[in-house]
Amino acid sequence: MIETNSSREGFFTIALNRPDKANALTPGMIEQLIAAVRSAVDGGARAIVLTGRGRVFSAGADLEAARAGLATSPLWEELSGAIAEAPALTIAALNGTAAGGALGMVLACDLRIAVPEARIFYPVMKLGFLPQPSDPARLGALAGRSRAAMILMAGQKIGAETALGWGLLDRIVPSDALIETAGELAADALGAAPAHVAGVKRMIRG
Fold it and tell me: In order of start, what are the domains of the chain with their CATH numbers?
């Protein structure tokens, strides 16, 4: 349910492929995502794109898996950590809505682009779960504390245009240009030495 493709040297696309379930994540899928990111890094990735198949990026945790404990699993934090620590330009290319725990991997990326129909929400207050440890800080760093509270505490669903204005998205693009745009944004990184990409990212991340 996780596809990895490398169309050119240093450029990896990792796609969620469970569109019939809105790309809802199971423990096995999260483990596959972690492995895919680490494999891309081991394969010399200078740019990694995360996207989904179908009309939704991810609805978050699979409902049955969430009830069985996935909602509070450390796997989410391991995934976002693997993405954040990757010595490559990471781009979330949202083919649709990103919800719940899936938003963590989006926040961990260096850049975020999305189709106009995409929405962002993280209903932890309503569901009675705490967000994953690094997610609130990353959300606040991008959008500010009040806007983080709008999402995490007030349960607001944020449309793409609003997310762009808040700094949660960097660009809104048509669905048929999503991966092409990600490739264009990755062009400079793909033309650079891996150590240079990693060094610039370290400086940005502090």
Answer: 2-122+157-205 (3.90.226.10)
HSE on the CB side for 165, CA within 13 Å? 6
pTM for the model stands at 0.97
C-beta of residue 91 within 8 angstroms of C-beta of residue 47? yes
Instruction: Concatenate the DSSP letters of all residues of 60-116 into one string.
Output: SB-HHHHHTTGGG-THHHHHHHHHHH-SSEEEEEESSEEETTHHHHHHHSSEEEE-T
> In this structure, are residues 90 and 186 in contact, taking their beta carbons and an 8 Å threshold?
no
The DSSP output letter for 9 is: T
- Per-residue confidence (pLDDT) for residue 24, from 0 to 100: 96
Task: Give the span between the Cα atoms of 9 and 44, in whole angstroms.
Answer: 8
Instruction: Give 66-99 pLDDT, tens digit per residue.
Output: 888 888 899 999 999 999 999 999 999 999 999 9
Other CB atoms within a 10 A radius of the CB of residue 128 amount to: 8
pLDDT of residue 63: 83
Going by C-alpha positions, the residue among 135, 200, 175 that lies closest to residue 51 is 175
What is the pLDDT at residue 66?
82
Please name every residue paired with 93 in a beta bridge, in sequence order, or none if there are none.
113
Residues of the chain with pLDDT under 70: none
d(CA 110, CA 50): 11
Output phi, psi for 6, to 5 deg.
-125, 100
